[in-house]
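Researcher: Can you fold this with uracil in place?
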Amino acid sequence: MKQFEYLKILKMSKRTLEEYLNWGESEIPKVASDKELMTKKQSVIKKDIQEKFSKNILGYKEKLEVLKKKIDSCVDCPLGKSRLNAVIGVGCPNADLMFVGEGPGFDEDHKGEPFVGKAGQLLTKIIEAMGFTRETVYIANIVKCHPMIDPTNPEKRSNDRPPTPIEIETCRHYLDEQIKIIKPKIIVTLGTSSTKGLLYTEESISEIRGVVKEYNGIKLMPTYHPAALLRNPSLKKSVWSDMKKVMHYLSTDKI
Ligand code: URA
């Protein structure tokens, strides 16, 4: 290897270590590769997909596409009338790990993809630090349309608000359908709206985070929303500790 190639690798390792120091680690942890994390369930499902394709039965991807069409035309609540794009979800249709956020913001409404703004970039870093990519997990929101303070102005920035309990209740069956298709091994709820929306809890996110719960028989880990980490970087350590529990569960089946 040429000297400049060694230097490049050293620089990249230094940057990775600095990134992990931000998350409260003193060294670069060994993260399992996607291949190592591909569990028995996933390999069985992969075979299953191939069989379904050959028999022309609807697979995971196709089922999500049918659901997408339903959501694209949904106007069951007022958010459906003011949104630019319904934001259904992104990632692997049979992922073991699913993230659920609050709802699309300005950037997501414009692009039609969840978590693409500043908070989304931080979520992508978290996913990558766990040894995954956006393509190998599934990312969705508890509501599929942009909740706006002023719904007449989708072109205005800083016009985001959390979804109301009624909006969450009206929309939640779409998330339930997604979960039924994807069948993740564990769901990570990001922040108050998705945690309270799925668990019907009165506990605050700071009380409940890091404690594994269940949602319809699926493990659920509540943690802080990446937007909260942007406002308060000292919360990063807690999120990383929660994600380490998730990684441990995915690789050992033990909580
Ligand atoms: N915040 C969320 O909760 N979801 C998104 O998709 C973007 C920001």
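Model: Folded with uracil in place. The chain has one domain: 66-252.
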